[in-house]
Specification:
The complex is a heterodimer of chains A (324) and B (264). Chain A is an alpha/beta fold. Chain A has ten helices and ten strands. Chain B is an alpha/beta fold and 264 residues long. Chain B has one domain (2-260): TIM Barrel, CATH 3.20.20. Chain B contains ten helices and eight strands. Chain B has helices at residues 13-21, 24-36, 53-65, 79-88, 102-115, 133-149, 172-182, 207-220, 233-245, 255-260, and strands at residues 2-9, 41-45, 72-75, 94-99, 118-122, 157-160, 192-196, 225-228. In chain B, strand 5 (118-122), helix 6 (133-149) and strand 6 (157-160) form a beta-alpha-beta unit. The model of chain B has no long low-confidence stretch (mean pLDDT 96). Classes of the chains: A alpha/beta (324), B alpha/beta (264). Chains A and B meet through helix 6 of A and loops of B.
Amino acid sequence: MRNRMPVDVIKERYTTKVGEVTLGATKAEGGTRSHTITVGGDSTLPFLHFEGEVPNRPVIAMEVQDRVPEWSEVVKKPFADVIGDPAAWAAKCVKEYGADLIYLKLASADPELGDSSPEKCAETVKKVLGAVGVPLAVVGCGVDAKDNEVMPVVAEAAAGENLLLGVAKQENYKTLTAACMVHKHNIIAQSPIDINIAKQLNILISEMNLPLSRIVIDPSVGALGYGIEYTYSIMERMRLGALTGDRMLSMPVICAIGYEAGRAKEANAPVSEFPGWGDLAERAVMWEAMTAAAFLQAGGHIFVLRHPRSVELVKRSIDQLMRK
Amino acid sequence: MILIGERINGMFRDIGRAIREGDKAPIQEWALKQVKAGADYLDLNVGPTAENPVEAMVWLVETAQEVTDTPLALDSTNYDAIEAGLERCKRPALINSVPADRPKLERVLPMAKKHGAAVIGLAMDAKGIPKNAENRLALAMEIVAAAMEFDIPLEDVFIDPLILPVNVAQDHAPEVLETIRQIPLLSNPAPKTVVGLSNVSQKCVNRSLVDRTFLAMAMAAGLSAAILNVCDDELVDTIATARIILNKDIYCDSYLKVYKGRGV
C-alpha cells in the first residue's frame, strides 16, 4: 500500500488583473450587432483556474479581405465560392465555421493592390456589418499614408458599432487614435516583438485620452519555427506585469496568427519538394493551429485565423483549457 | 519601494509654527502635496519643541486625516504620543520607531499588535549605534525575535540600520549597505528595511546628490522603504530609474512619467 502525502497547492496572489475590452454594440447600445464580445479580465496566469478568474474565453476572429488574397491554395479553397465578396465570405465564416469575430483587412486600399478609395472601403465595411451579427475588427492595408486617409472615413461610417480598428504603431498612431476617440471605437496597438515599445505605445495612445479599456495589444507574433518563443516570453512578461500593477501592459492581447503562420515555408512548400514533410494541406492547417495553440498558453485573447479546420482545432483547444 | 513622506515634522519652521498656532493649512497642504507625489505613508513628527507632544500628535493625525486616507507613520520617542495617535488612526499606521531595547520593545510592540500597526525597529540599543554590520544584524535579530514573541507579522517589521552623515561617520555607510543586504536572511517571511534618507547628507554639500546616490545603492542592496522628501523630483526619478535597472518595472521611454503617475 502506498502512503499518500498531502500536497499544498501553492497559489500566487496578484494585486491587479488584465483589463477587459468589449467589442461591438447592440441596437440598444447604438450599433447593429446581435451581441457584444468581452475579452480579458484574467486575474491569474493563463488558464490557472485554481488560482484566479478567467472570466472570458479567448475568441477567434476569422480573417476576411476585400480583394482575393495571395494566400496558399490550401487556405483559399474552403472559400472558393465567396472569396471575391467580403460580405459573403464573412457570413460563411460566422455561419459555417463559427467565427466569434470577423477581422476585415482592407487590403485593396493599398496603392499597388487596387488603391480603393476611403469611401469604397467604408462601403465594404458597411456591407460586412450588414452580412454578420458578430462584432468586427477592421484593419488598413498596411501603407501608413493611405491608412491615415481610409481609417477615419471607416471609423465615421461605422460610428456606434464599437469596432476594433487597427493598426496603430509607434510611428503612426495619432490619426487612428483620434478616429477611435471621436467615433468611439477600440484600437489595436502594435509593437514589433518589443515589450518596451508595446508599453510606450499604450502610454502615447492613452495620453491622447483614449481609455485603457479601449486598447488591445498586438505584440506581433512570430510563427512556429520563426521566432515564436520571442513573442511567447514577451506575452508572459506582459501578463506578469498586468497582474502586478503595470497598468500600461494590462490590456488584452490580439495575435495575428494567420498572417504569420501563412507565410512560413512549412505552410507553403509542396510535398514534392520535401517528401519527408507530408501532405501540404494538412501541414498548412497544422502550422496555423499549432502556432495559435502556443499563444493560447502564452495568454492571448483574440486569435486571428484563416483556415476553418484550424479554427475548429483551436476552438477545441480553448474548450479544453477553459474546463475547470 | 515604500515611500514615507518626511515633510510634516515640527523641525521644519512652517510645521512647527502650525503646530504651535493650531493652523491646519500647512499640515493639510503638505499632506496632499506628498500624497500627490506618491507617498505611501505620511510621517508625522511633532518636533522637539511641542509643549504637549501627546495633544500635538493627536491633532496632527486628525488634521491629516481630514484631507487624506494615506496611512500615517507616527514619529516620536514619546510612546504616549504614539499610542494616543494610534487610537485616532483610521488605517493601520506605522510606528516610527523603537530601538532594540527590551523595556521599549515591551512598551511598543503590544500597542502595535493591538492596533494592527507596522513598526520600525532601530538597529541600536541603550549603548548606541553599532559600528559594524554584524552588531547591527544582531540587534535586528533581537527586534525580529521580539516581534515574533509579541505576534507581530514579520512583513510589518521594518528594520532601520541607521545611516549616519557621511561627513562625520563615513565608515558606517558600507556597514549599513551590508546590513540591508543581510536582513532578509534573518527570517521567513523576511522583515523589511527602511532608512531615514536625509540623515546620510546632514551638513554636507550637494545634499540631494548624496541622498539620491545613497538611495540607489541601498536599493541595489535590497532596501524596501525610505523616509524621504517625496517632492524632490530628481530623487523620485532616481528611484524610478533604479527600479528599471533592478528589473522591477518594465522599461518604456516614458518610465519616469509612469512612475510618478503610479498612484493615479
